[in-house]
């Protein structure tokens, strides 16, 4: 089965955890696309009432088009469950997100959710985080100086570019990716990055996910994380 088929499999599997009356955080990315498609069908077929809280314009547009009611996070009083993709998940169920530049909004939605589920194909499961570049959302002002500090710390930073233009996040910030290879102590790194002025949010999602649905050739596997 190719990667896209595995993504579709877990997107369709995850919809089983969404029930009538729920407020659901909807993540971003090519795996979540399949979740939103399956949810659109479920809303129509079962006539259930769902409120979706999207984490990107892309997800919001897709959900609206499929007949899913959408609200801004500021207009809901709680989020029952958020379902999102991930770029890497280690053996302790810590994750890297932000490959799709949405990790700031995804983290705000995730930490305000009662429960979080990640949906991934098997290639995202790893022993250590870090072979996927760690995204930082940074304030453009002074970002060159921040970049130099990160380089001096041996974090191997690169600005995320589109040709000669900086890729911009939803909040009009830049992305710096750190090429770390292997992150042995994610909590220590997280604290270090939290302390650096100019970084709005990093893509380490620690102690957040409750359940992971992994797509394998022989079917989806649901794993309780915490
Ligand atoms: O963190 C993300 C976006 O910021 C995505 O969840 C992550 O990049 C996974 O994407 P995909 O499902 O396309 O592989």
UniProtKB/TrEMBL annotation:
Q: Set out the biological process GO terms recorded for this chain's protein.
A: D-ribose metabolic process; pentose-phosphate shunt, non-oxidative branch
Gene Ontology cellular-component terms for this entry are: cytosol
Q: What does this protein do?
A: Catalyzes the reversible conversion of ribose-5-phosphate to ribulose 5-phosphate.
The pathway this protein participates in, as annotated, is:
Carbohydrate degradation; pentose phosphate pathway; D-ribose 5-phosphate from D-ribulose 5-phosphate (non-oxidative stage): step 1/1
Name it.
Ribose-5-phosphate isomerase A
Describe the reaction catalysed, as an equation.
aldehydo-D-ribose 5-phosphate = D-ribulose 5-phosphate
Keyword annotations for this protein?
Answer: Isomerase
Tell me the enzyme class: isomerase
Q: Which gene encodes it?
A: rpiA
Enzyme Commission number: 5.3.1.6
């Amino acid at each position: 089965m190719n990667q896209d088929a595995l993504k579709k499999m877990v997107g369709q599997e995850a919809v089983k955890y969404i029930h009538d009356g729920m407020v659901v955080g909807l993540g971003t990315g090519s795996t979540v696309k399949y979740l939103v498609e399956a949810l659109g069908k479920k809303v129509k077929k079962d006539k259930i009432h769902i409120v979706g809280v999207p984490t990107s314009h892309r997800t919001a547009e897709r959900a609206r088009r499929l007949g899913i009611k959408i609200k801004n996070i500021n207009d809901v009083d709680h989020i029952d469950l958020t379902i999102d993709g991930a770029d890497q998940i280690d053996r302790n169920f810590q994750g890297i997100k932000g490959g799709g530049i949405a990790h700031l909004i995804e983290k705000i939605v995730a930490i305000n959710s009662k429960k979080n589920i990640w949906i991934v194909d098997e290639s995202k499961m790893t022993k250590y985080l870090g072979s996927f570049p760690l995204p930082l959302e940074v304030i453009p002002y002074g970002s060159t100086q921040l970049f130099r500090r990160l380089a001096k710390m041996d974090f191997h930073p690169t600005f995320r570019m589109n040709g000669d233009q900086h890729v911009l996040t939803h909040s009009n910030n830049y992305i710096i990716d750190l090429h770390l290879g292997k992150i042995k102590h994610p909590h220590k790194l997280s604290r270090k990055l939290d302390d650096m002025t100019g970084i709005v949010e990093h893509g380490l999602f620690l102690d957040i996910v409750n359940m992971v649905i992994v797509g394998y050739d022989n079917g989806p596997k649901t794993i309780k994380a915490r």
